[in-house]
Amino acid sequence: MPYEVTGLRLDLGDRPVLRDVTFSVSPGERVVLLGVNGCGKTTLLKALDGLLIPGAGSVRYGGVPLEPGRLDEPAFRRRFRGEVALLFQNVDAMLFNPSVADEIAFGPRQLGLPDVEARVARWADAFDVGRLLDRPPFELSGGEKKRVALAALMAIDPRVLLLDEPTASLDPAWAARLVDLLGRLQGVTVIASTHNLSVVEELGARAILLAPGRAGTLYDGPAQALVRSGPLLVASGLAHLHPHRHGRAEHAHFHVHDAE
Asked: Between 3.20.20.80, 3.40.50.300, 3.40.50.2300, 1.10.10.10, what CATH number should domain 3-256 receive?
């Protein structure tokens, strides 16, 4: 089992972000982390990547606790970093090489993987950035940067993809292509965060719903059922009841917040 999260508590400074979060993720599963901005999606993904250490509870990867002692062990660190890839919400924090080609090659070179040039060519083509290989990443548009960052992650052949708002900054056509690509991956565990309800069912069959200031998870189950549950979406802040009055009659319907 890739992940077991038990009683997770995480604070950012003096601000409590996650409380008593418990769930597990099986190999090859595709899970969507859903919730409004500030609910802890990014914090949780960073904990799954070993970048944030819980104040209480535990995060286990393949049965191994992600804690400083284990992450400092060279053999485990190398295996973990070779298997788990995190896409930051702000991809500018990931791009620091002098060219797009160097950016895609960076991970394979660090891990000593074979066929680096072939990996660069394959994933540059998959994300349609081949014409940009000689360009500095900082010159690119937001959508181009996102595609370069995704190509760089895929170049290490990860077993787990942690994706923070993966469709943000992508135009609709490229968002659809990314969803299709993720759906074709075989044996790769994908945990993707979003607050965009229109892509939830395409990103994963299972959804975990978080809400600011609430302990645990509001929901953990089929994505299809969640996006059709008005009360849960209202409770999480992803939707609200919008009242209408027609003469003396008044009714309300759910209004969804799904813009990125």
From this structure: 3.40.50.300
